[in-house]
Design goal:
The chain is of the alpha+beta class. It has a domain of 123 residues. Helix content is 21%, strand content 39%. The chain contains 2 helices and 10 strands. The strands form 2 sheets. It has a 7-stranded antiparallel sheet, sandwiched between helices. A 3-stranded antiparallel sheet has the order 8-9-10, with no helix packed on it. It is elongated and about 105 Å long. 13% of the residues are buried.
Length: 197
């Protein structure tokens, strides 16, 4: 797809004391750059169209997306679209056209923009899924087992002490449950209970 194809931008212009909102639609057909401006003027849908020089396409795209454009009126119900590109502005002369003949181009432009937007969202979603743990990987054809069974801990040998190595061997911990729960420890060589809180 050529870089200038499918670009849309809104332009606000004051015309006869009233603000008019134009929709710029840029298309490329057979290597020719076509520009159309759509507007609802006094309840009537109007379109102006013309061809432009696309030799500075990257500068034109940056200027359009940056809002560096404006519309001027000219004679015979025509418009002049001025794109403020770096160094010198690009001017496209637009003439009033039959609205019905240009409706398919408007629909094509709207569908292209929607398809481009959905494609970009799909690419972002796939990239997000690929970054997540357990996401699709190329070696398994995009399929992985999302849940792996937990490893079972080996049971201690029957003769092994249940005390952990970092616990003191001379302490035995007892617990009992009554009206209140308390813990006590019996120290070797002592016959008294010391509560542990």
């Amino acid at each position: 797809m050529p870089p200038l194809d499918g670009i849309q931008q809104q332009i606000y212009y004051e015309r006869g004391g009233r603000k008019v909102r134009y929709l710029l639609l840029s298309t490329v057909k057979s290597g020719q750059w076509e520009v159309a401006l759509w507007a609802n003027v006094e309840g009537k849908l109007q379109v102006w169209a013309g061809d432009g020089d696309a030799t500075r396409s990257s500068e034109i795209i940056d200027s359009i997306k940056g809002g560096m454009i404006h519309v001027e009126e000219r004679g015979n119900n025509g418009l002049k679209l001025v794109i403020h590109a770096p160094k010198t502005p690009v001017t496209v002369y637009l003439d009033s056209e039959d609205t019905v003949a240009y409706l398919p181009k408007l629909l094509d432009g709207a569908f292209e923009a929607e398809i481009t937007s959905l494609t970009a969202k799909l690419v972002n979603l796939r990239a997000t899924l690929a970054r997540q743990p357990g996401g699709p990987s190329g070696s398994q054809g995009g399929r992985t087992n999302p849940t792996t069974p937990p490893k079972k801990m080996a049971a201690p040998p029957a003769n092994a002490s249940r005390l952990q190595p970092n616990q003191k061997r001379d302490d035995t911990v007892l617990s009992w449950v009554g009206v209140r729960t308390a813990q006590a420890t019996i120290r070797q060589g002592k016959n008294n209970w010391e509560p542990v809180l």
